[in-house]
Amino acid sequence: MSADALPHAAWRAARLRALTILVAFALPWLAALAACTLRFGGRTPALLVVGIGLLLLAFVAVLQWRRLDLRWLLRALNARSDMEDSADLLAAPPAGGALQQLQRQRLQQRLAAHPADLRIAWPWPRLAASTLAAALLLASALLWPQRAPDSSARVAPAASIKASPLRLTSSQLQLTPPRYTGLPVRRVSALSASAPQGTQLRWMLAFNGTPDRVALVFLDGRRLPLQPRDGGWQAGLRLDASVLYRIELDGRLLDAGKPHRLDALPDRPPQLKVLAPARSLSIAPPGQPGWELAFEVEDDYGVATQATLQLTLAQGSGENISFREISLPLRGQGTPLRRRFNHRLALAPLGLQPGDDLIARLVAQDNRSPQPQVVRSPALILRLQAAASEEPSGIEGVVKRVLPAYFRSQRQIILDAEALLKQKPKLAAERYLQKSDALGVDQRILRLRYGQFLGEEAEDGPTLPTADAGGHDAEDGGDHAGHDHPAPAPATTFGQDVDLLETYGHTHDHAEAATLLDPQTRATLKLALDQMWQSELQLRQGHPERALPFAYKALGYIKQVQQAERIYLARVGPQLPPIDEGRRLGGKREGLASRPDPLRAAPPVDADITTLWQQLDAAPARAVPTQSLAALQAWLRRHGQRAADPLALQAALDALQRDPACAACRDHLRALLWPLLPTPTAAVARRPAPDAQGRRYLDALDAEAKR
Fold first, then answer.
1. Would residue 579 count as lying in a domain?
2. DSSP 525-593
């Protein structure tokens, strides 16, 4: 289709002329209808009529515009005599016969010489008549006389306005959390809300009238006046603690004094967890190159990306210990709410020597502003294993090992098991099983001896050997059978505690065995016991080849225990001042202070709460004393954090203060006080009351006693 040959300007002008005539007819009538509706129906119906009329006018205008389409244009052009009913050629495709192209050129030349005017002529007579009729209707509506209201009708609205109380028509509470939380600003229509501590609150209230003054009255005694602004009343406050409040209009509480609550959510401190190492005390063998440290920190609003690793080096021994502190910055990885701090410490640059201690502690903080919350990890200790050294002689004390020497008999069990494996081809199966079972018994005896150091009870079995038994040396792991205790020696001295202990006491244990083990040594010894148990199990079943791996592991743990820290016990007893013999048995009491019993009856805890709870249980007709309610109010200010919901308790107390006769308020407050009551002290249970037969028996006893 060829669109360039059509007279588009004339077509557009015809459409605009049709729309203009339509609007000229419709607008006067729309104005007249709106005036009539406003006169007799009010403003709202008039606006509704105008809106509906404009929508109808727009709909008809669209239909009118579409009615004047291409077909209408071609019919209008064919109405001209010079078009020769060939206007359709102007809309046909240019590709055609020679005769068609020649006729199209002739039509285009004629339109260029005499432009087409397709506009509809103005219907002036009909338009004038329609406009005049609409004007008469409009004038009638505007000049129609109003009905004069009577005096009672004139006074009634004023009286009703004066009598109607002010009420809240709209409310908005804007909450702007602190920037470090990353929470968005939000607006709520409710007057109660929960927000992070430090949130900026802004109230925007509107009423059905114009009050003289508006204020927020908090239950803790504060008042916040609102200022008129932008057609409403506004005020701002920083939320630092949870609180209850009411709205006051011209000295009158709104909504019957119902309190609204604001909950301040505190920013919890960061939570730090040590991921590596698994224990607080680690023993580093000689030659260990580094120490792996890993921490994880969580926070509800975000953890700072930077943390500090504090290192303390303790070098030397005895009184020559020196300390050196080093701080290393660490950068966390992960999400803002959970970050992980990893670091591998190289031990060589620190200059650590065997026997030195390295103490590490991570210091992290959250993003709270202006004062971040700091959290510190527990101290992690890396102790470099000290080399074995000869004991110095001539010291005034006893240096004892954590474990006595006979624990090294585990090596003999290993040697015997290896020797038994070499003899296996030469021994009968039954004899081989007997020898393996005997080694299992020796392993069991040694395991039981170890168990005594961990507080385990001895099992039924042969008596364990002692370190001072004859024929046992450091490496002897032969027969661990029991021994008999000799009879008490007859030659003793009366009154000597040592002789009494040797005579009647049980001094079976070696003196070095009665020692206290640190947690790390106890854990290592427990691992040795577990390996011994597995070794014993395989030996008793006749499989020494399976028992050897467990026995070797047990021996390794024993060596670690033997190389643990040494404990120095001085051979010095208490040196008491000499007694003045001249003051003994003199009977003089000068200078002696009075020594009364220091125990005093403890004051009752939360006596005010107990008293109020009992008073609330009384008859509703009896009013609760004001002093008790004031005492509870004071207790809330001091110990409010002890209550599960302090605001609920404060609201219940306020409701009872405002309506002392409210039975439901008394019951609600009493229920909230119940969890706060002190636990009653333990007392002797009363004997149950006797039955009829028991009473007769007691009466008979009383009668017998009165004779």
1. no
2. HHHHHHHHHHHHHHHHTT-HHHHHHHHHHHHHHHHHHHTS--EEEES----PPPP-GGGTT----TTPP
How far is 434 from 522, CA to CA, in rounded Å? Answer: 33
Same domain as 125, residue 48: yes
Closest to 533 (Cα-Cα) out of 514, 513, 557: 557
Please give the mean pLDDT across all residues of the chain: 78
Query: 376 and 313 in one domain?
Result: yes
Q: Note down the domain range covering 230.
A: 166-265
d(CA 258, CA 263): 16
Q: By three-state DSSP, how is residue 312 classified? A: strand
Chain segment 391-443, per-residue pLDDT in tens: 444 443 444 444 444 444 788 899 889 989 988 888 888 889 998 998 998 89
What is the spatial distance between Cα 220 and Cα 654, in angstroms, rounded to a whole number? 11
Does 539 lie in the same domain as 413? yes
Residues 252, 170: Cα–Cα separation, whole Å? 18
The CATH code of the domain that includes 515 is 1.20.120
> Among candidates 82, 85, 62, which has minimal Cα distance to 74?
85
Query: Is 539 in a helix, a strand, or coil?
Result: helix
pLDDT per position as a tens digit, 147-173:
544 444 444 444 444 456 788 889 999
366 with 434, same domain? no
Q: How far is CA 149 from CA 36, 158, 162, 678, in A?
A: 20, 14, 20, 73
In this prediction, residues 701-705 reach a mean pLDDT of 87
Cα(338)–Cα(297) distance, rounded to whole angstroms?
Answer: 6
pLDDT in tens, 629-641: 888 888 888 877 7
Residue 693, both tokens: 């037969």
Residue type, 332: G
Which of 191-200, 266-275, 650-659 has the least mean pLDDT? 650-659
| E strand or H helix at 297 | strand 290-298
- Asked if the structure places residue 390 within a domain, the reply is no
SS3 content of the chain, % helix, strand, coil (to 5): 45, 20, 35
The position carrying tokens 């209850």 is 244
The CA distance from 140 to 131, in Å, is: 14
Residue 299 is classified by DSSP as: -
Q: Is 160 helix (H, G, I), strand (E, B) or coil?
A: helix
Alpha carbon distance 332, 348 (integer Å): 25
Is residue 261 located within the same domain as residue 279? Answer: no
Domain presence at residue 457 = yes
Q: Is 560 found in the same domain as 448?
A: yes
Q: Is the Cβ–Cβ distance between 640 and 242 less than 8 Å? A: no
Residues 542 and 636 in one domain: no
